[in-house]
Amino acid sequence: MVARVIPVSPFDLVIFGATGDLARRKILPGLFLRFKSGQMPEKARIIGSARSDFDSAEFRKVIGAAIEEFLDEEHRPAEAVTAFLDRLEYVHIDAMGDTGWSDLKAILRDDVIRTFYLSVSPSLFGAIAERLSKHRVATPEARIVVEKPFGHDLASAKALNADLLRYFMEEQIYRIDHYLGKETVQNLMALRFANSLFEPLWNATHIDHVQITVAESLGVGGRGGYYDQSGAMRDMVQNHLMQLLCLTAMEPPSKFAPNSVRDEKVKVIEALDPVAPEDIVRGQYRAGRDEPSYFEDAENPDSRTESFVAMKLKIANWRWAGTPFYLRTGKRLRDRVSEITVVFRDPPHMIFPNPMEGRKGNALIIRLQPDEGITLRTTIKEPGPGGMRLTEVDMDMTFADALGSDLHAQDAYERLIMDVIRGDQTLFMRGDEVEAAWGWADPLIAGWQESGKRPVPYDVGSSGPEEALMLLHRDGRRWRPIGD
Questions:
Q1: How many CB atoms lie within 10 A of CB 262?
Q2: What InterPro entries would the database entry show (predicted)?
Q3: Does residue 155 belong to any structural domain of this protein?
Q4: 45 and 128 together in one domain
């Protein structure tokens, strides 16, 4: 299958922090791939800005090197790279002062979409927004994109929202979470709301429980200092896993429109019951063979910051009453895996005299990474003579196989940036949604800090602490193996 490429309108995209790691590793290579695919119109232009006192030629060299470093050779033909680099310009701007803003205003065009991507520290969001307004660089139709982390707690998230809303309308603000740009995350909505097969079963009557796992095989590495001030709860659960939970559990929106979808996501967060202390497990990876411990990576031998979290959540509404949601995420685990597993209830009466031992039951496994796709586990008769013997098989749709490798290669940033240019906020978080998520997370974090308890240790290359396994075992359930 060949992906349809729908060109966007002409635009000027200004990237603040254009020589930083995220811009070099994800944003600009992603824009190049959209350019190569034909989605970027002739009048589209990308303007980099950073503290470096470059000119446009030097900036093009930096981005050319980044494309060579982060994209495979087959995806970066030389002529396409040269043509893309010709679209780039650079303006040196002092984000905290007034230098360079008049130069930026002078090169922006009035007849195209203006978009400002803030690939910078959140501490600069307010200062840049203020100067975009003060120097009349931003028009009433302009769009502004801000990266996570969006706040450290509810108070700081409210302050960031207030800073942005002084100068931009909510309809102009795009709070990006790259998990929402993954093909499979969007397919979750299509699977539920574009088919009549699953949605009638998508409730507590038919679903036993749901597991959401985001496991990473690497440790915190060079991010140790930052991560030790954050932890798995702030870094992953409050945003990425919460978004996956909302899309899995939300009610059908009245239409596929930004505010309709986001209204339903907010309702899920507001319906979450308080989490009991016994329903949460926090862990830290210990040193392994030739592998440093979390203490060593964080350079803090007394750290009480978690590198692993598992928890049991309950949603207090009619659809999900009695169906638990189990979330887990962690560093230095067995494999790099992100998936949502929806486990259906067993038939109310088993008519077969010899049901298979160790039967896992029907499940829908939605894989976000590394191999995006969907698997449906069903029970069938084992082939061959000798009576009715049951077995389980997986009906698998790996997107790279079913839809073609070109679709599989698309990165979340490619899709989300093009959505910004189109003015589609569906896959971006709204201000009240961010605040609702922090409002849920803050009491849990405060409770941990007040208790002073250390996270429990777990082995590198494991599935996490034994206590996390017991979280499901005591309910008569088991986690889906990581890397299965």
A1: 22
A2: G6P_DH (IPR001282), G6P_DH_AS (IPR019796), G6P_DH_C (IPR022675), G6P_DH_NAD-bd (IPR022674), NAD(P)-bd_dom_sf (IPR036291)
A3: no
A4: yes
Q: Which residues have a Cβ under 8 Å from the Cβ of 34 and sit 6 or more positions away?
A: 40, 414, 417, 418
At 28-56, the pLDDT tens digits run 999 999 999 999 999 999 999 988 888 99
What CATH number should be reported for the domain holding residue 105? 3.40.50.720
Instruction: Kindly list the strands in the beta sheet with 456-458, ordered across the sheet, starting from the edge strand earlier in the chain.
Output: 390-398, 373-381, 363-369, 337-344, 207-215, 325-330, 308-313, 280-285, 456-458
The answer as to whether 166 is a domain residue is no
Mark whether 110 and 252 lie in a shared domain. Answer: no
Known binding residues for NADP(+) are 17-24, 51, 148
Selected catalytic residue, list 240, 349, 408, 473: 240
Q: Is residue 121 located within the same domain as residue 241? A: no
How many residues belong to the chain? 484
Asked, for residue 2, whether it belongs to a domain, the answer is no
Does this model's pTM top 0.90? My answer is yes
| Sign of the dihedral defined by the CA atoms of residues 158, 164, 165, 169, in that order | negative
Range of the domain at 263: 180-473
In terms of DSSP bridges, do strands 363-369 and 337-344 run parallel, antiparallel, or are they unpaired?
Answer: antiparallel
Distance CA 292, CA 301 (A): 12
The answer to whether residue 75 is catalytic is: no
Name the binding residues for substrate.
Answer: 178, 182, 216, 235, 331
Say how many C-beta atoms besides its own lie within 10 A of residue 474's C-beta: 10
143 within domain boundaries: yes
Cα(364)–Cα(3) distance, integer angstroms:
25
Per residue in 312-341, is it b (16+ CB within 10 Å) or e — as a string?
A: bbbbeeebbeebbbbbbbbbbbbeebbbbb
Binding residues: 17-24, 51, 148, 178, 182, 216, 235, 331
Q: Which helix (H) or strand (E) holds 458?
A: strand 456-458
Sheet-wide strand order for 173-175:
88-90, 45-49, 11-16, 113-118, 143-146, 173-175
Among residues 147, 164, 190, which one ends one of the domains? Answer: 147
Residue 356 confidence class, pLDDT cut points 50, 70, 90: low
